[in-house]
Amino acid sequence: MSAWVLVAIVPEAAGGLGDGLALERVKTRGLVGLVKRASSTPRPTLAALRRHEKLVRRLWEQTDALLPARFGEVFETAAALRRRLSDERPKLLRALEAVKGRAQLTLRLGRDGEPTPSPPAATGKAYLLARAERQKLVELSPIEARVLRFVRASRRRRLDHGPVAAALHHLVDRPDVEAYRAAALAAIAETGVPAWLSGPGPAWAFGPEEPL
Amino acid sequence: MKPKSPFGVTPRAKAAIVQEDDAALIDVVDSLLNQGVVLNGELILGVAGVDLVYLRLSALLCAADRVLPNAKKRP
C-alpha cells in the first residue's frame, strides 16, 4: 500500500516551498497539499510526532500562509486528496487568508480547585451537545486581558481533567509576537495565575473544521 | 503538613507536570493529535474534542492508534 501523508496545505502561490524536503505537491485550483509518500500509514510514535511537527514548523518558517495537517491525515491516492482539497476549497482558502502573516501562541491556564464533574448524559448526542456548551464557558482570564490587543483571532478549549483548565489559542501578527510574549510573561509573573505560554508556531488550532 | 492539590500531588509536583520539557511535549502532542487541518471526517470523530493531552502518553498513543486506518483491520 502506498500512503499519501498530508503535511500541510499552502496557497499555490507558495511556489517552491518544501524543495529539498522530499515532499510532493498535490495541486487543485489555488491550493497545494504538501505530502510525504510512505509505504504505509505512519505509526503514532513520539518520534514520528516530533518528526511531523519539525517538518511542519520548518515549512511554516519559510512561508507566510500555511495550514498544518493533523498527524495521521493519510490518503490512498493523490486523486483522493485532490478531491478533498477541491471539496473543501472555499473553507481552506478562507482559513489560509486568516492565518497569513500570523503565528499561533497558546496560553494554558492552570486549574484552580476541583474540576466540576459533568452530569451523566443519557445519549451520545446529549453528551456532545453538553460538551460543546462547556467549551463556550471559558471566561476571559486576567492574563488574556493583557494580551488581547495583539490577538487577531482566538480559539479556546476547556479541559475537564488534569492540571490545565483551559487552552487559549491566539493568532497574532508575526511582527507582534515578541510584544505578545513579553506582555503574557509579565502578566503571568504579576498575577501569579498558574499559566504556561507556548509559541510562536504554525496555526494548528485555526484549521477550517472549526468556525473562524 | 504539605499542601495537597486537588489531584493528590503537591503544588510543586503539579507545576512540574506542565513545565520545562514536558510543556514542549504537551504542545507537540496536543497540536498534532488534537488540532490541525482534517480532511477525513473519520479523524474528526475519533480524535477532536477528546482531552487526550493529559492522559499518560502511552494511553494517548494507543487512543490515536485506534482511529488510524490500520486499526480497523484488527479484531
Brief summary:
The complex is a heterodimer of chains A (212) and B (75). With 212 residues, chain A is of the alpha+beta class.
In words, what does this structure look like?
The complex is a heterodimer of chains A (212) and B (75). Chain A is α+β, with helices and mostly antiparallel strands and 212 residues long. In chain A, 33% of the residues lie in helices and 28% in strands. Chain A has helices at 46-61, 78-87, 89-99, 124-135, 142-147, 177-191; strands spanning 3-11, 24-28, 31-38, 67-68, 74-75, 102-110, 151-158, 164-173, 195-201. In chain A, strands 1, 2, 3, 4 and 5 form a five-stranded antiparallel sheet that branches. In chain A, strands 7-8-6-9 form a four-stranded antiparallel sheet. In chain A, strand 2 (24-28) and strand 3 (31-38) form a beta hairpin. Chain B has 75 residues and is mainly α. Helices cover 53% and strands 0% of the residues of chain B. Chain B is built from four helices and no strands. In chain B, helix 3 runs antiparallel to helix 4 (57-67). The radius of gyration of chain B is 16 Å and the shape is elongated. Chain B starts with 10 loop residues before the first helix and ends in an 8-residue tail after the last helix. At the A-B interface, strand 1, helix 1, strand 4, strand 5 and helix 2 of A face helix 1, helix 2, helix 3 and helix 4 of B.
- Residue share in helix of chain A: 25-40%
Q: Could you spell the SSE succession of chain A in H and E letters?
A: EEEHEEHHEHHEEHE
Task: Report strand % of chain B.
Answer: under 5%
Q: What multimeric state do the chains show?
A: heterodimer
Biggest interface found: A-B, 55 and 42 residues
Mean pLDDT score of chain B, rounded?
Answer: 53
Q: How much beta of chain A, percentage-wise? A: 25-35%
Find the count of extended strands of chain B (DSSP E, 2+ residues): 0
Which percent bin holds the helix content of chain B? 40-55%
Mean pLDDT of chain A: 86
Structural class of chain B: mainly alpha
Note the run of SSEs of chain B as H and E. HHHH
Helix/sheet category of chain A: alpha+beta
Largest sheet of chain B: none
